[in-house]
Amino acid sequence: DIQMTQSPSSLSASVGDRVTITCRASQSISSYLNWYQQKPGKAPKLLIYAASSLQSGVPSRFSGSGSGTDFTLTISSLQPEDFATYYCQQSYSTPPAIFTFGPGTKVDIK
Amino acid sequence: QVQLVESGGGVVQPGRSLRLSCAASGFTFSSYGMHWVRQAPGKGLEWVAVIWYDGSNKYYADSVKGRFTISRDNSKNTLYLQMNSLRAEDTAVYYCARETYRCGGDCSYYFDYWGQGTLVTVSS
C-alpha cells in the first residue's frame, strides 16, 4: 500500500504569512494527489486536485505543486479563515481505489 | 445542489452491529463511485471503503476487512455501511464522500462532496 507523510505536523503562523506544507508518497503517484482543508466539527473540503488544479470556488491564494513523490501546498497570504488542518490524499492506487490520506498538518495562530 | 446526508450512528456495545446510511441527492447517484471515510476523535482521516458506481467492485481498508460491508441501492440513491463485530477502535465520525475523476492538465480521482458525518461510539 502507498503511505503518505506530511510535514510539518503542525505550524503556527500569522495572518499574511506565506505557508508551505509538504506531502510525500512512499512511491510515485504521478499527479494523483489532492489537498483538503478541515475545520473543527466540519467535513473536509477539497482545495486542490491533480496536484495543482484549484477546485472551483477556492481562493487563488491556495496553490499546489509537485509530481511523483513530493508535493507542496502553499497559502500565499494566510487569512483568518485558513486556520485549519490540511490533509493530502493519494488517489493513484486504483483499482483497488484505496485512497489513503496523509496524517494532517494543523495550522494555528501564532 | 449536491447533498449527502448520513444517518444511523449511535452508541453500540463491542461486538454488536450497526448500519449507516448515506442519502444522496442533487446528482445522478448511479454514475459515481462512493466512499466511506472515518475520523476517530482528535485523529486524522482514515479511508474505509469504496463501491463502484454500479456496485460491481468493493474494496476495504485492512482495519475493517471482513467486518464491514459497503453496499448501495441506486434506485433509492442511498449508500450503506454495514458494520459488524464492532470494536472500541471503530469509534469515529463516519463520512460518505462522492468520488469524481477529472483531468485539469493532470488527472486525479478526488472527493468533491462530503456528508456532514455521523458519530459511531463503540462502548460498553
Compose a concise summary of this entry.
The complex is a heterodimer of chains A (110) and B (124). Chain A has 110 residues and is an all-beta fold. Chain A contains no helices and ten strands.
Structural summary, described in words:
The complex is a heterodimer of chains A (110) and B (124). By secondary structure, chain A is mostly beta strands. Chain A has strands at residues 4-7, 10-13, 19-25, 33-38, 45-49, 53-54, 62-67, 70-75, 85-90, 105-109. In chain A, strand 7 (62-67) and strand 8 form a beta hairpin. In chain A, 38% of the residues are buried. By secondary structure, chain B is mainly β. The termini of chain B are far apart. The A-B interface holds A 30-34, 36, 38, 43-46, 49-53, 55, 67, 85, 87, 89, 91, 94-104 and B 33, 35, 37, 44-47, 50, 52, 57, 59, 61, 95, 99, 102-112, 114-117.
Shape of chain A: globular
Largest sheet of chain A: 6 strands, mixed
Note the quaternary state here. Answer: heterodimer
Structural class of chain B: mainly beta
Assign the structural class of chain A, choosing from mainly alpha, mainly beta, alpha/beta, alpha+beta, or little secondary structure: mainly beta
Enumerate how many helices of chain A there are, as a single number.
Answer: 0
Give the uncertain stretches of chain B in residue-range form: none
